[in-house]
Amino acid sequence: MSDDYDVNVDVDGDGHWDHNTTESDGHGGHNIYVDMNHDGRADFVGHDADSDGLIDSATYDANYDGHFEAQTVDTNGDGWQDQTVYDYDGDGKPDEGTADTNYDGQTDVEAADTNNDGEADIFRADLDFDGDFDWAGRDDSDANPYASR
Q1: Which parts of the sequence are annotated with region: Disordered (predicted)?
Q2: pLDDT tens across 42-98, in order?
Q3: Is there a contact between 32 and 22 (Cβ–Cβ < 8 Å)?
Q4: Which of 48, 63, 99, 133 fits a disulfide with 124 by CB distance 3.0 to 4.6 angstroms?
Q5: If you ran DSSP here, which 8-state letter would residue 18 be given?
Q6: Cα dist from 143 to 50, 53, 116, 121, whole Å
Q7: What radius of gyration do the chain's Cα atoms show?
Q8: pTM for the predicted model, two decimal places
Q9: Signed CA dihedral, 131, 60, 11, 79: sign only
Q10: Domain segments of the chain: what residues?
């Protein structure tokens, strides 16, 4: 740990704190690094902008391939990551986005670009917040030459 900064993170959600290293970002915040597969490279990089012990944003390499495919942000300051954007193919464009709009820890809204054209094609929402998606939509306009735009 650096600068007497101490933070607990549970990257994989197993209920146990994961070993981490930290460094000051030079602007009053800290970066938090976790090597989940013990290969010597960080698979999670968290950012605590004000050193209050809560992760404000993070990047994940969930499949340990060296590419950080998920970026998250805490939108209400409670330390839980409420929005996530995924770039699965590494082209710099979002492939999927999710949000926890009522801050209960479950994804309520999801949009995905399934044909890699840079626009969302599939939409899902849990409108009554019961944990089940009860609304879904699909934009097939790219696949159907006769669809109006």
Answers
A1: 73-118
A2: 999 999 999 999 999 999 998 999 999 999 999 999 988 999 999 998 888 899 999
A3: yes
A4: 133
A5: P
A6: 46, 47, 12, 10
A7: 18
A8: 0.80
A9: negative
A10: 1-77, 82-149
